[in-house]
Amino acid sequence: MSETAKKNRKLIASLIVLFTIVIGVVVGFVVVKVITANNDSASEVVEKFRLDEKYYNSSDVLKEISEEDFKAKLEAKESFALLVSLPRCTEETAAFKTYVSGYENEKKIAILYMTSDTVRNTMIMDTVKYFPSVILFNKGEIKAYLKFDKDSDTEYYKSQEAFGQWFEKYIEI
Questions:
Q1: Tens digits of per-residue pLDDT, 114-168?
Q2: CA-CA distance, 152 to 173, in Å (whole number)?
Q3: What's the distance, Cα to Cα, between the start and end of the chain in Å?
């Protein structure tokens, strides 16, 4: 075998090894991205906050508020929880509302209520796309909300206890 043939073989072998390494790095990068993108909120670091004091020790259950009341709360930089649902409830939405109101009664916490029709002209529609959802506001800004279209959040829609776990991940009781 000639010197040139040996060099060509070494070059080809080196290129194959290099190509294999590059492919491995790319595949590894993609896998990490997919895992990171699919990582649900369970592993995120959450800084809990308190609702405004008037929402504790409350007997109000899903008190409905108007668009004007909502905007006033944002302007006043209040911290509160808001359930938004479609105007005509499906069976699942009705069940979820029951879980939320049961949680309110158990913990004596007021969670406000609006329909999706009422929030249509508010900043909520810039963030929340699907209802029902519970949206948590800290000092007038959305800090967290239940994502009806996110698989990892669906468990929180299934029972009062599950909803409470989600709620207490963000709110100091």
A1: 999 998 889 999 999 999 999 999 999 999 999 999 999 999 999 999 999 999 9
A2: 23
A3: 80
pTM tops 0.90, yes or no: no
- Report the run of H or E that residue 65 belongs to, with start and end: none
- Residue 31 burial (CB count, 10 A): 10
Residue type, 7: K
| Residue 106 identity | E
DSSP 87: S
Element (H, E) at 145: strand 141-145
40-47, long-range: CB < 8 A, 24+ apart:
40/150, 40/152, 41/152, 41/153, 41/169, 42/152, 46/144, 46/169, 46/170
Let me know: does 70 contact 119? Beta carbons within 8 Å. yes
Cα–Cα distance, 23 to 17 (Å, whole number): 10
